[in-house]
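Re: Re: token formats

Sure, here are both.
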Amino acid sequence: MRNEDKKRVLELVHEGFLHDIGKTEIELRHDPLTLEGMERALLQGRIPVILISTWQLNRSRVPHWVTVCAIDDQFVYLHDPEIDVEAGETVADKQYLPIDRRIFDKMSRYGSVQPLQAAVIVGPKRTP
């Protein structure tokens, strides 16, 4: 990040998030979430919520959260909460969107040297 003030703000926000998470039973992990890991989560009745870049969808480099609802040999299927009502979109237009697995892999990572990823798995607490 080029602007030191912005960098410091992000660091403070991150520290605040870590502090808040520390007061919960949320499990924070730093390992990459693979498609296989997402498939396991889905089979366990859990929902992967993934931060993507919308570049592959609409040529905008905006970070955007989507839910993964299914995965097969060809596609990752997404539910996208962003509905452009003014453009005539409906909820049905943004459900079960098929995204090629290779494209999804690009969408769900940021940076080229050390790709970053952000994901949340929502569901019942796992037992050891």
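Second one below.
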Amino acid sequence: MAIFTKTGYKTKYCLTHPWKVIAHKCYDLRNAWQRANKGYSYEDVWNMDSWFLRIVPQMLSEFIRDHHGHPVDMPEEEWDKILIQMEKAFRNAYEETTEFENPYELEYLNSLELDPKNSTIQSTADEALKNNYHNAEESREKLMQQSFDEGMKLFHEHFYSLWD
């Protein structure tokens, strides 16, 4: 049964909806084929921002671990610090890997309820919680943007040194 859970679906769902699991696997195979033949898939094109912030930090992490040289004009320790800083900046710019948290997120999300009459989501939170959540979310997004800008600045400055 472990093969079913690798799709991201629960086993019971896989057994009751096998066509969805097959469709999901076909979708994955199509993306893999496109990446093997073109170097990217149409999904990567649709979500280029997410693709970049998901893939580049992984590439930088592997580069940090396995690189054998450094730019001639700087010591290896400085180069390693720059690479680590670049990787961290890009990780913090991505929604799924950022270390910036909204302290009100869980409480606010728990206050959301589906209104079955008009299929909308309503919040039962008081105004103070709503304001705190939205202000913290704005601050978090600014920090993520600053982190992205820092990563891109370093990426731009050292782009032609990112080879081994």
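Residues 127-158 form the longest helix (32 residues). The radius of gyration is 21 Å.
- S.
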